[in-house]
Amino acid sequence: MQHLREQFHPFNTGRLVHRALRHSQLAVAHNQKLAESLPTLLKPRVGLLYPGPDATLLNELHVDQRPDQLVILDGTWQQAESMMRAIPQLRSLPRYRLAPTKPSRFRIRRAPDPQALSTVEATIAALRVLEPDTAGLDRLQAAFVAMIDHQIGRDATKAQRRHSKREELAANER
User: What distances in angstroms separate CA 12 from CA 23, 64, 109, 112, one per listed residue?
Assistant: First the structure.
């Protein structure tokens, strides 16, 4: 489920996940519309991947306790919290969490804590637990890292151009 404001963001990892995974669904709308459409989207054994004190570690679940469908919220952490507040059905779902062993590689946005992962990283980690035979997870991870590296390279080039322009203007003023 994607927050409406995330839909056209250039680092839209929810869209990246949806395009990479055949059996995924991407629901994008205002919170009220998402709440209205949620019952038609959910399977009987559904869970929500969302950290918290009452969330069960995915990797501690016995195979027969695992959800058949996992809802993952896509947006900034503030947007995800907003979705949790605004969509009561989300709060009623069983909650699951991950125990990342490495910090997020999503260096473009600031995470609220070292355990926080981007949508794509969380999806990959969850699938490695729930469906370890899923093909293409390494390619999805590589595409994610390439996207970040490309953007950081673009930002560095822009900053370098701005710095050079300032130096040129300062030299011309002398």
Answer: 18, 33, 12, 18
Residues facing residue 70 across a β-bridge: 47
Q: Is the distance from CB of 43 to CB of 20 less than 8 angstroms?
A: no
Q: pLDDT by residue for the chain (174 residues), tens digit each?
A: 999 888 887 767 788 888 888 888 999 988 899 999 999 999 999 999 998 889 999 999 999 999 999 999 998 888 999 999 999 999 999 999 998 777 655 555 555 565 668 888 899 999 999 999 888 888 888 888 888 878 777 554 544 544 445 555 556 666
Q: What is the count of structural domains for the chain?
A: 1
Q: Which two tokens stand for residue 125?
A: 């980690």
- Residue 63 to residues 18, 58, 129, 130, 167: CA-CA distances in angstroms? 25, 10, 10, 8, 62
Strand, helix or coil at 29?
Answer: strand
Structural domain boundaries enclosing 153: 2-173
Q: Among all chains, which residue has been given the structure tokens 């929500």?
A: 48
The whole model's pTM is what?
Answer: 0.77
